[in-house]
Write a structure and sequence with these properties.
This is Glutathione S-transferase. With 119 residues, the chain is an alpha+beta fold. The chain is built from three helices and nine strands; from the N terminus they run E-H-E-H-E-H-E-E-E-E-E-E.
Amino acid sequence: MTDLPHFAFKILSRADWRAALAEGRYDGSAVDLADGYIHLSAADQLEATAAKHYAGQSDLMLVEVDLTALGDALIWEPSRGGALFPHIYGPLPVAATRGARALSVSADGRMVIEETARA
């Protein structure tokens, strides 16, 4: 599977991102914890994920994750429509992230991403 991307994204609340920065790791949302892994989306999956799970929400962060830094904790598994999605089995180390930007998602699912990184 050498054609899989080397980076992906996690959408989370600004409060969760601040806590992750303080702790050096992100353990996952309630949905992640219930499923047993942290859900990520590749770039081409991001818009559909935002529309499906975050429509109408603001005060979010879009975190870019370096998948090569995750080692064996990363597993690509079929999900929505049979597409392979990156899942992290274990915490997401902040050291494996490449940046974070403020994000809001309109009621119709359109993403609005700030250009500058924020915490």
